[in-house]
Amino acid sequence: MPKEMRYWLVKQEPEDYSWDNFAKDGGTDWTGVRNYQARNFLQGMKKGDSVFFYHSGKEKQIVGIAKVEGEAVADSTADEPGWVMVRLKPVKALAQPITLVQLKSNALLKQMLFVRQSRLSVSSVTQEEADEILRLASK
DNA sequence: GCCAACGTTGGC
DNA sequence: GCCAACGTTGGC
């Protein structure tokens, strides 16, 4: 039975928590999501899924790939119940970061949910989009 | 620094 | 339940 591979994208201000911080930590609980749509995506994550790591703010580029280490659990940093966090582990930095400009100039990738909805901090990525990102990143 | 897009809040 | 006002986010 072929294993279904799923892809996601999380966004982070590098000034708050950069890929380098993440790589140094060797993994982190993705906490602090306080948006229902983003929360629903977090809840959809399954162990082994791949997660693109995007730097917002000045950089605006996808910089690395992470992996989901486990199912969503209650967010320990939340004041109210109902919010979740997911344990993520770094896999590798992209050989070539993919900038937002590149994404927007690509017919397929400019359709990405997170490109269309820039404020969404966690989003899903389709297999086709993931393939294209990985193709660009290995150039 | 500005502004568009979006989500949340609170008065009615 | 509607909607105006407000706050936040993030691209430009």
Mean pLDDT: 93
How far apart the termini lie comes to 31 Å
Radius of gyration: 14 Å
User: Tally the helices: what do you get?
Assistant: 6
Shape: globular
Largest sheet: 7 strands, mixed
* Share of β-strand residues: 25-35%
**Which stretches are poorly predicted, pLDDT < 50 over at least 5 residues?**
none
Throw out a few tags for this protein.
single chain, 139 residues, alpha+beta, seven-stranded mixed sheet, 7 strands, globular, DNA-binding
Question: How is the topology of this model organized?
Answer:
Elements: E1 7-12, H1 14-17, H2 19-25, E2 28-30, H3 36-44, E3 50-55, E4 61-68, E5 73-74, E6 84-99, H4 100-104, H5 113-116, E7 122-125, H6 127-137
Parallel strand pairs: 1-3
Antiparallel strand pairs: 1-7, 2-6, 3-4, 4-6, 5-6
The chain binds a DNA duplex (12 and 12 nucleotides) through loops.
Polypeptide structure, described:
By secondary structure, this protein is of the alpha+beta class. It has 6 helices and 7 strands. Strands 1, 2, 3, 4, 5, 6 and 7 form a 7-stranded mixed beta sheet that branches. Strand 3 (50-55) and strand 4 form a beta hairpin. The chain is globular. The structure holds a DNA duplex (12 and 12 nucleotides).
Short synopsis of the structure:
The protein is of the alpha+beta class and 139 residues long.
